[in-house]
Task: structure prediction
Amino acid sequence: MHIPSWLLTFCEYLEQMASLVVLVPLGLAFWRWPHLPPPLRLLTGSLLFTELVLLASGLVELYRPGWSYAVWHVFTLVQTLLFCRIYYLTLVSPVVRRLLRLAALGFTVFAFCDSLYLEGFQQVNAYTHVAQSALLIGLALLYFEQLLNELHIIRLEQDPLFLVSTAIVLYFSGTVLLYVFVNKLSATTDHASHQMIYTLNAMVNLIQYMLFALAFWYADQLLPSPARS
Amino acid sequence: MNNWLLPVMLATPVLLLLALGIVGFVLRYQRRLLRQQEQLRQVRDASQQQALEAALLAQEEERRRIAADLHDGVGTTLAIAKLHLSALGQPNLTEEATALLDQAIGEVRRISRNLLPAALQKFGLPFALDALARTVPADGPTHVTIEQRGQPRRLDPKRELIVFRVVQELLGNGLRHAHAETIEVSVDFGPDYLSLQYRDNGVGFDPAAGDLPPAPGARSGLGLTNLRSRVAVLQGTLRHDSAPGAGSKVWISFPIPYLPVDQKPALTTSI
Result:
């Protein structure tokens, strides 16, 4: 399939824009830092960590080509654990919180197995990514269920954690297939295919960052709940 | 181009749409649940209001029955007994008994009038309030004034009775417990509201102690519970301010539709 050159150029610009847009939620997070509840402070930490990993993977790629995948393996694990902590602080049910601890432990063990034995450090940890998507989408759905049971928030679209959960559901459902086939897709030397993968990722990233920015904007509207203290 | 890319590019938007659908469903479902919750709350409020109104109606009906029994039964019997005494033709022997009977007849009339204020039914709230103020002796330890502001007019009989009972209760509580030198009640007939202000310079009470059992001889302010019930029936608001030794103030306001000037309320009330 032939992809027109203008579309490829557009995709490149879109990708660059998506990597810059992260500055919007980060800027808002620092601006509203005194009002941020613990889950949103953790989210800020997660965004900062993402940027640091981007920088680190660039440096590793420069001096030890081929080892940048290892950095991303660590990133997947730490990012998942950070989001698990966010939901641990947000979800109220003791049973769910106990299960969440077990799930985080199980995920860590699986991620290590995947990186060390199943797929190794020399390629993208696709299995871990799929497990991450399933875990985080599940947690977001559990938060939606909690919202519907509690009904203490009148305007859901202004609830920061609803926006964060929406971002997570959209990002991970939009990229899960990409990660299922990522190693098969990246085996090709076709530049256009690579560009399409990056563009797809950049588009959902853009949506995610905009929703995170909105979450920080509405940060002071977060209602206190027993689990959020 | 890689063979795997096309299915991924096609399936990803579908997954995204599904995810958006879930978010949309949560938003819509939450709105619907909130609406249902609000409707339930309204129904609950309405039924509470009805129950409160029914309880007050029953109370007023009971008062009316007791007033009628006192007036027609006990009052008549006492009057007949007095007639019999005077028929004996020995005023020297019956003078003291006749005086006691007169006192009892007067007492029965007073209780009967308090239970069923005839002046309220016949002449309306403004007149009944004046009459209420006159029942307190001017040379007593407490000086009572009931001031009426605005344009005093007739209300729906049910509302008139509730407002009258509120003033009666405020005054009764003040006279019984406040040990005040002055009690001032002002009734303001506004354009679409009626507000009451009560003020005394008596012993006051601790508003925070309302939930605790009162100490012997202490004023607990529990009369406010009855007042609140009556005010709630007319969907009014009640505020009070008091402290031990600092007197008491109560502000009450009702949203009230007045009767047109040419329309007279029915003499027999529904309560």
User: Anything to note?
Assistant: Chain A has nine helices and no strands.
